[in-house]
Each structure stands twice: as C-alpha cells, then as structure tokens.
Amino acid sequence: MEVGMTVLETEALTRRYGSHLVLDGLNLEVPAGRVHALLGPNGSGKTTTVRMLATLLRPTSGSARILGHDTVREAAHVKRNIGFVGQYHAVDPRLTGTQNLTMVARLNGYSARGARRHADDLLERFDLTDAAARQVHTYSGGMRRRLDIVAGMVVRPAVLFLDEPTTGLDPHSRNEIYRYVRSFVEEGTTVVLTTQYLDEAERLADTVTILDAGRVVATGTPDAIARTVGSGLDVVVLDPHRRGDVAAIVERFGGRPVDSPARDENAPLRLTFGFDGEPATLLPILRALDAEGIAVQDIGRRRATLDDAFLALTGRPTEGIPA
After folding, report:
1. For the ABC transporter domain, which residue ranges apply (predicted)?
2. Contact at 8 Å (CB) between 197 and 322?
3. Which end of the chain is least crowded, N or C, by CB within 10 Å?
4. Domain residues for 295?
C-alpha cells in the first residue's frame, strides 16, 4: 500500500447514548504507513471512536471508511483488514502462549500445521519463545500485553487499533511495545492508538487528534500542536500560597497561565505559562516578583510540549486518567 494514501476516513461521525452525546461529528483522515494517536481526558470519546472504527459499535450518524469500505455496510470486509487490541487482556489465561496464537490463527483460516508454524514464528519474533509453553496466567503484565498485541497481528492487518496498549506497564515493557509498534509501521501497517501518556504520543505518533467532550480541539503533528501555545515558562516559588500573586505578575508580561496538577501544599510551587516574550523579559519578571516579596527558586524558558498544548486546550492533564 502506497505511503500517504488515505486508508481511514470519517465524516461527521457521531455517537449518542440516549441523550448523552459522546462523539460529536468527527472528521478524520489517516494516511497509510503512519501512527495516529487519539488523545483526550476521561469521557472525551476516544475509546468510543476506536470501537466504532473497529466495527464493534455502530455510529448514531455519520460514516467511517477503511480502505474505502464502510464500517457498517461492509463490516465483514473491514474486519478482514483490521486488528484490534483493547484495553484489557483478550488472551485466555488458561492456555499457553502457543495455544492462544494457534487458536487465533485457526479462527482466521489457517490449517492446523500452518497455524502452529505461524504462532511459533510470531512468538520468536516478539521474544516470547521461552514462555511459549507456559499458561498465560504465569506471564508478567508486560508479557501478557505483548501477547495481546501479537494476537492482534496474527493476520497482518492494514490497520491496527491499539486502545491504551501500555497502561500499567513498567518503562521497560513500554519501550518494548514502542519497538514492536514501529516495526509494524515499517512493514506497512497503519496504527491508530489511544493513550493517556502524552510522551508516548510524542514518541510514537506521526499525527495526533485531541478530543475534548466528544469534539476535536486540535489535530496535526505533535510539534505543530505544541507550537499553538507558543513557548513555555516555568516559575518555581518557595511559598505555594502565592499562586495568584505569581500568576498576576507573569500575566502582566504576557504569560498565559496553564493549569498545573495539584501538589503538596507545603512543597515549592511550580507554575507553567505559555510565553512568547524575549529571554530579556525574565529579569523584569524576577524584579517584579522580588518587589512583592515572592522568593523564586527557579525560572526558565523552554520549548512548549504536547503536554502544554493539551493542558491549554482541555484545561486538564491526561496522565493517570482512564479512557
């Protein structure tokens, strides 16, 4: 499949549960050979979106197409070209790794011999051969998640949906998942993932869509979205009770407050601002803070991140928030 060709597109995709509007008119295009991340706080609609795209949920209105085929009217064709890995383990914990993958391969039309050979090849490729004969309930969390993802790749899909693939994993296991995802993309698979980790989106995704309350608030590359809030300014003050005073002073010099996560009320306070002023502006800010008796522990400019943009666009952090 030619890189850059549109493989997934939606038009005014909408989903309601009764009177509750979960997704409101999503328009999306994802080209071949890319990783596209869906980000958003709790209730933003990202998991609902993935479930509709994977034919697991019917839209209330609007449409979605994968490889030009409608996900409702041509669901059987779409299913033959996609893989789906949900938030929770889908493999059977009572079966071994080999048995799980062999079963999935058999369900997808492989002969008994071909299914076993394919399962063995996948287990070797994804460093699970040593655990192949063990029941899955004996696997670590990272190993089970890797097996989940491999099961979604038994039949090489054109589009792979990953719904929060690394939630709860340790850093080493997360890095292993990243390596596998990139290898899939290099071989031609398009990946759509939801994640609560913004650093994961920055590291993996070619393009990102941020949803809030069911609506798109930004879409583009991680860098382009980060640039929408300008540069960043961090101010760390010793007295956590002077938040309002610090914000008022920095705003006078063009700072745009970005909500910071709650912290220990007795710990130094770090405030983050969107800030496009020149570096020379820092000295007048320091003098103004000092004139108000506010002790500054640290102050510094930095490039805005996807995290800054997410906070500015949704008013909420995403890390630790379930889908």
Report:
1. 8-238
2. no
3. N
4. 230-303
